Amino acid sequence: MIRKTMILGSLMILALITGFNPVQAQTVPVLSLADAQKISDAAEARARQDNWNVVIAILDAGGHLVALRRMDGTQIGSVDVAQKKAETAVKFKRATKVFEESVKAGNVHILALGVTPVEGGVPIMRDGHVIGSIGVSGVTSVQDGIIAAAGLDAIK
Q1: How buried is residue 123: exposed, middle or buried, by Cβ count under 10 Å (0-12/13-18/19+)?
Q2: Are 90 and 133 a contacting pair, CB within 8 Å?
Q3: Among 13, 72, 129, 132, which lies 20 to 30 A Cα-Cα from 94?
Q4: 132: part of which helix (H) or strand (E)?
Q5: Cβ atoms of residues 138 and 69 within 8 Å
Q6: Is 118 within 8 Å of 95 (Cβ atoms)?
Q7: Which structural domain range is residue 43 located in?
Q8: Rounded distance, CA 91 to CA 87, Å?
Q9: In sequence order, what are the beta bridge partners of 148?
Q10: How far is CA 106 from CA 89, 92, 93, 127, in A?
């Protein structure tokens, strides 16, 4: 008991000396389910404007699936592609369009990174942190990118 009290006392003194304040500890924002639903709702609404059938995948900062929406009539192959686009965007903290343009410019060595170099994957940012990503697949890559951008606009 005395030993435990001495350790706690020492830690308190150390905290005072160093100026550590647990209240000032930095918190990192997270992607909530409500955010993911808002993003996927907006993305789906944009897709419906042009009668585009797509899959919309939303991942958290760890690359885990939070929401997946496959619109009626969308090919099942787009389920995997949307998730891979979102995974690339969250892991590399940039839009998949960057990789697509790089490959088109001849930088095929980028493929060794295991990326999906097709437009339609975009990181979701908040307060300078990547909190997740969106991946869209089902129409052309440019159209997928338009839909993903519309989704992101919903939480700006």
Answers
A1: buried
A2: yes
A3: 72
A4: strand 129-137
A5: no
A6: no
A7: 28-153
A8: 6
A9: none
A10: 21, 20, 22, 34
Positive or negative, the Cα torsion across 130, 136, 140, 145?
negative
Establish if 17 belongs to a structural domain: no
Q: How far apart are CA 25 and CA 27, in angstroms?
A: 6
What's the pTM? 0.83
- Provide the token pair at 50: 């042009």
Q: Return the CATH number at 108.
A: 3.30.450.150
Q: Give how many domains the chain has, as a whole number.
A: 1
Q: Would you say how long the chain is, in residues?
A: 156
Residue 72 lies in a domain: yes
64 found inside a domain: yes
pLDDT of residue 125: 97
| CA distances in angstroms from 113 to 35, 96, 110, 143, 148, listed in the order given | 29, 13, 6, 25, 23
> What digits encode the pLDDT tens for the residues 49-82?
999 999 999 999 999 999 999 999 999 999 999 9
